[in-house]
Amino acid sequence: MNIAQNLQFLRKRDKITQEALADKLDVSRQAVSKWETGEAYPETDKLLAICDLFDVSLDKLMREDMSIEPQDSTPTEAVKKTAATEYFKHVDKLSRAVSIGVALIIIGAAICVALAGASLTLAKSYADLTVAMSGTAAAIFAVPAIFLFIYNGINHDRFKRAHPIVERAGDDDNVSEFAKRFTLAVALLVSAILLDATIFITLTVLLQSGIIPAADKASAQCMIVSGFLAALAFIVGGLTYYGIQHGKYNVDGYNDKVRAMLNPTKFEKLCGAICGAIMTVSLSLFFIFEFAFENLDNSWIAILVGGLLCGIAVTILKAIDGNKK
Question: Running DSSP on this structure, what letter comes out for residue 279?
Fold first, then answer.
């Protein structure tokens, strides 16, 4: 049987990595490697899945040497559609996760402000407890948000390495439909931001002028800020979602970014190395000031300076690189 040779040939023809093929077939990369070396053979359901993926017959896959036949170098439409579907599903999941994470952080800030405001009207013992609860509330919302960012960031990097090229597969109708939804959604969300800001300013003015009565203006102001942030959380979350969704249909841009990530130029490697060194020194100084000298008020300046130095270094390097060209 020629399964091993044919599978390797088809995978390379359609520019699919072993890891990407393993993901499509829901097996390990090692399993694909063993199939291609002849150490093992795919089960019946996997054979049928391979036939569907590469648009070949089972008889041809098992009996013929496909490498000696004249082949079209471009991926089949079936492969294109499969890759595009996986890409869209991945970006849909990423956009939901990131937008939820952004909204959670802002909601946590809103609850923190609300509890801090409530503490201003309570007795000292209860006030201290409420302030502590405000910090805890912010952390409760921040932790899952950070988890979503890290998990999906790593997963996105893994996806890009497994799918360095995504082919277009007749998605013009989807692009047209999304463009209409995107325009309407962005218009509504930007309008919502303006409305939220208007309500916030109006309530603040009415409170400070005494038109809205309040036993403690500072506490009431915190509640207004909390409401503003709570509404803003859903709006910014929506903008984040549609922003990522908008990039989903820029397949050429995705391919260019992944190509640049996998094949960085010498200039990009140099910039990364210099910025990495600067930030390592900055973080080291931060921890030294924070714990060794207990300079809690000013230790954050080390990280800020590190970020500024990175920006300056990259700007200078770009200017030098541009002059060379």
Answer: H
